[in-house]
Amino acid sequence: MIIILILSAFYHFYLKPPSKTERDGVKDEDIAEIDSLIVYPVKSGRGIELDDAMVSRKGFKFDRRWAVVAKKGLKRLNLKDEPKITHIIPSFDYDNNMLRLRIGKESKVQLPDIGVPLEIDEKTLRTWPHVENISFYGDFADGRESQLAPGDWGYKGTPSDWVSELVGYPVHFLQFDPVSSKRIAFPIFKPPHDLSRWEDDRQKQLNSVTGVEFQDLYPFLVATRESLAEVNEHVQKAIKEEKFRYDKVFWSRSDRDVSLPIQRFRPNIVLRSRKVQDGKDKVARYAAFSEDSWETVWVEAEKGTLPIHLVARCERCLLTTVDPETAHRDPNVPLAILRETRARISQPGIKSRPSPCFGMYSIPEEPANGFLRIKVGDPVRVRWRPFALDDEVEAGRRQVREVAPVSQHKVLKK
Questions:
Q1: Got the DSSP string for 94-116?
Q2: Following DSSP, what letter does each residue of 69-82 receive, concatenated?
Q3: DSSP state letters, 185-209
Q4: How many Cβ atoms from other residues are within 10 Å of residue 308's Cβ?
Q5: Is the terminal CB of the chain with fewer CB neighbours within 10 Å at N or C?
Q6: For 11-30, what is each residue's pLDDT tens digit?
Q7: Which of the pair, 102 or 347, is modelled with greater confidence?
Q8: How far is C-alpha 338 from the chain's CA centre?
Q9: According to the model, what pLDDT value does residue 406 have?
C-alpha cells in the first residue's frame, strides 16, 4: 500500500503534465513583506530578532547550530522535554567572535554569563569531544562538545556543566559538527505544481540534501502576523469562555497579556500583509493562514531575489504550550485551540489524521553566490497553489470564495 502511494504521488507531482484544471487558481501577487526575521542559535533557547540575515541553502547562518543533549541515552532535548532550556538567552558578539549566553531572570537557577566561539576552524573543532549519532526525525547528526570562548569568565566549568546546572541533570552542550554527514530534510509534501517543467539542475537542487544543522526537519518555518492574530482571537475567546482547562493563575495575572507572542511558534520568517486602502481603513490583502495556500514566495532583496518553497505544514506539539519567557507550561493553550480550529493533514500519503498545524516548513533555493542578505521590510511576492492541489480551498465538492479586496483564496475553517 505504501509503495502504491509513493508511486502515485511521484506520477502526480513529477511525471503527469498539469492539466488546465490543475493550473486554475495559480496566481502571483505582490501582497506581503517581511515583518520579522528570527534565528534560534540554541535549539529551544530564546530566539534573536534580526534586522537582516544571511540566507544560504540551509537557512539562516547560526540557526540551531547548538543543541542540548541529555547524556543519558543521547536524547536531544527541546522545550517539550525540558522547558528550562528557554531560560538560555543568546546574543551575537561578532566583534569578539562569540555567542554570549545568559540565564533569564525568570529562572530559579542563576549562573554567571558565559560565551562560546561563533566561528571555529576545523582543526580546533576536531580537538573537542565528539558526540555521534544523535537521533532526529529520520536521520542523525553529530556534534562537538562546545568549549568556553577566550575571556575572563566568572564561571570555571564547561558550557555543558553550565547547562547541566541550569536543567538539573547531566547534559552535553553541543555545536553542530559540519564535517559530519549532511543531514537530509523531510520529504517535500507540497511541491511546486510546475516542478516537472523545471530545468533538471533546479529540480535536483530542490530535492537534494539541504545540510540543515540541528533543525528538526527543514531549513525554515514561515508564518504570518495575520495567522497569529487569528490564533490569539481564539485564545482570548477560549479563556474568556473557559472552553478548555487552562492555568487560571498564570493567565489571570494583571500584568499578563492574554495573547501569544510569535516566538511561541518559533518561526524564522514572519510575513505581514502590505495593506491596501479601503475607504478610511487600511486592510490586509490576504486572510489568516493564507501561507498554507502559497507554494512559493519570492523575497525581493536589495541584491537579488530569493525563492522560498513552502513544502509542508508544521504539525504542532506540546512545545507550543511552553511560554518562551517563563518556561511555564499550560495544559492546553494553544494546542487544544489549534486542534479545534486548525486541524489539517500535515503529511499527505503518510499521516491521514488531521493534526493541529501552524506555519509552513520551507526550503530556500541556493542564492547565486551561496548567500543572500534579506531584511525586515523587504517586499515579498507570493504564488497561490492551483485549486486542485490546495486543500485549504474547496474545489469540486469544495467551493472557492473571494477575499476582499485583492486576494483570491479564502481560508476555510472546519
A1: TTTTEEEEEE-TT-S-----EEE
A2: EETTTT-B--TTT-
A3: PPP-SS--TTGGGS-HHHHHHHHS-
A4: 23
A5: N
A6: 444 444 444 445 688 999 99
A7: 102
A8: 17
A9: 41
**Positions of CATH 2.40.33.20 in the chain:** 18-55+185-212+215-414
Quick one: average pLDDT of 378-385? 97
Give the β-pairing of 27-39 and 269-273.
Answer: antiparallel
Reply yes or no: is the peptide bond before residue 405 cis, omega within 30 of 0: yes
Percent of the chain with pLDDT over 70: 86
CA distances (Å), 15 to each of 91, 151, 297, in order?
47, 58, 24
pLDDT tens, position by position, 307-365: 999 999 999 999 999 999 999 998 888 999 999 999 998 888 777 789 999 999 999 99
Q: Which three cell numbers stand for residue 316?
A: 504542532
Among 285, 289, 266, 169, smallest CA distance to 220 is for 266
Residues linked to residue 67 through DSSP beta bridges, in sequence order: 174
- How many beta carbons lie within 10 A of that of residue 393, not counting itself? 23
Residues with Cβ within 8 Å of residue 130, at least 6 apart in sequence:
142, 143, 144, 145, 177
- Closest alpha carbon to 212 in 73, 364, 79: 364
pTM of the entire predicted model? 0.88
Looking at domain 18-55+185-212+215-414, its CATH architecture is Beta Barrel (2.40)
Handedness of CA 28, 348, 320, 73 (dihedral sign): negative
Q: Alpha helices of 32-86 — where are they, by DSSP H?
A: none
- Taking only the tens place, the pLDDT of each residue in 228-251 is 999 999 988 888 887 777 777 677
CB 359 within 8 Å of CB 268: no
pLDDT digits 0-9 by tens, 114-136: 999 999 999 999 999 999 999 88
Distance, CA of 278 to CA of 202 (rounded, Å): 41
Concatenating the DSSP letter of every residue in 393-408 gives S--SSS-----SSS--
Alpha-carbon distance of 70 to 191, in angstroms, equals 36
| Residue where the block lists cell 492574554 | 258
Q: Which helix (H) or strand (E) holds 174?
A: strand 171-176
